[in-house]
Amino acid sequence: MANYHPADELLMQFAAGQLTNALGIQTACHLESCKICQQKVHLYEQLGGDLIDISTPAEIAPDAKSKLLNNLHKHQESAVDLTGNHTVKSELETLYTEQLANANQRVPRPLRRFVPDYYDNLPWAGFSKSIQSYDLPFSDDQYTARFYKIAAGKELPQHTHKGNEFTLVMSGSFSDLSGDYHPGDFVLADDSTHHQPKAHDKEDCICFAVMDAPLKMTGFFGRMLNPFIK
Amino acid sequence: MTQSTQSNAQYLNQLVLQIAQQNEQAYLELFESCAGRLKAYAIKCGSNSSDAEDLLQDCMLTVWNKAPQFNPKTASAMTWMYTIVRNRRIDLLRKEKPNLIQSFDLWPDGDLDQTYSDQFSSSQLDDDVEGDLNANLVRILIESLPEEQRQIVYKVYFEGKSHSEIALDLNLPLGTIKSRLRLAMKKLDNLAKEQMTWLIIILLTNF
Questions:
Q1: Which sequence spans correspond to the domains of chain B?
Q2: CB of B9 within 8 A of CB of B78?
Q3: Label partner for B17 (CA 20 to 30 A): which of A197, B25, B89, B149?
Q4: Residue-averaged pLDDT of chain B
Q5: What class, spelled out in words, does domain A119-228 have in CATH?
Q6: B112 → closest Cβ in A28, A58, A100
Q7: B96 and A92: CB-CB below 8 Å?
Q8: In CATH, B3-97 is 1.10.10.60
Q9: Are A21 and B7 in contact (CB under 8 A)?
């Protein structure tokens, strides 16, 4: 069970359907193993239902009701397959189902479509053996999404962050001055955080990082490394 | 909480349960009672009237298809329909772009997930998460929030605005927005704890 959680504001945005980006996937990964946050999201969904409940109805097109029944009957005809009543999946749904089923089931479900193999098999890249990275395929204008792998027992150069960096521990564990972080832990670092994360000795630590600006190294070594880190 | 909102919630639950039995009359009744508000949600989120009608039709078809999965013990019909309209809005905006993040990446979907068994499948989630113990509590809270806090909650839900965008919109300092939202969330959190307390009391008195 995770000890570090996303802020309530983030969970509310998630429940409001407003995090359809890397941060949303990251939040969903945390939720998968965190009952406490699941409860909160459920409460915020209830709030969403209540906001609809108390809203003033919009005017509906006069033909909406006949369209409703037409759509239903058309759907019922197309949805019955040869054997009986089963609904036929759309092309996209069939694709998703396959993607999910073929992926490695040890990867959290929200990532499974994007990281179908387990972490060992990813094309890790990096100039240093102590830290390697893999760019996840769903970065956008707002957020960059990336996996980091810190080698067992290695320490990163001290750095701070320009903007926010959300980190979710996927496997292994690391610590910095503020604490020990284990799988499922969700940590936010910002420009006030100066830290030097160190992976625990036993195994490599894999983290899922979502950031709204590139890393900015502060130590002597860090400043030298900075131009190489994307 | 009034008797009528309570019984209205039960009425909607019943309708969805009947829709699960392929009852077209119930389907029409649900449409009558909710269509205007579902469309209003789409419009508040930024759709024009014609896109909002399309979303409404799409959601209603989803309601028909997913009604057999509806469980009033885990969520009221309104909460359940909220998750449908929220998800369908996201997916319609990303139609035919399978590489983008879709709603089912964020929230498990019973239809797509049932092909494999997994400890985190949606049914497991549903069983573990508390249902809407008393849907009216949240509603009373929303109605009792001061206008300034309510306005910000609305902006988060419907406009997808970040805190700094809300600050610009309302011409207020960022810190004010954050503290108002935090106050609103704190009240919600207390409410959740209150619900838990009631649950315990109900359980204790029943045994």
A1: 3-97, 135-206
A2: yes
A3: B89
A4: 79
A5: mainly beta
A6: A100
A7: yes
A8: no
A9: no
Q: Which residues contact B175 (CB under 8 A, 6 or more apart)?
A: none
Whether A14 sits inside 8 A of B27 (CB atoms) is no
Q: What does DSSP assign to residue B155? A: I
Q: Rounded to an integer, what distance in angstroms lies between the CA atom of residue A27 and that of residue B106?
A: 8
Contact by Cβ (8 Å): A46, A53: no
pLDDT tens digit sequence for B130-139: 455 555 666 6
User: Whole-model pTM?
Assistant: 0.83
B59-91 burial: b if 16+ Cβ within 10 Å, else e: bbbbbbebbebbbbebbbbbbbbbbbbbbbbbb
User: B15-60, pLDDT tens digit by residue?
Assistant: 999 999 999 999 999 999 999 999 999 999 889 999 999 999 999 9
Domains of chain A by residue range: 8-53, 119-228
- If DSSP codes are grouped into helix, strand and coil, which group holds residue A225? helix
Q: Please tell me if the domain spanning B3-97 has the same topology as the one spanning B135-206.
A: no
Each residue of A107-149: pLDDT tens digit?
999 999 999 889 988 999 987 889 999 999 998 888 999 999 9
Cα distances (Å, whole numbers) of residue A209 to A15, A135, A144, A215, B121: 21, 10, 8, 11, 25
Indicate the class that CATH gives domain B135-206: mainly alpha
Residues of chain A with Cβ-Cβ distance to B188 below 8 Å are: 43-44, 47
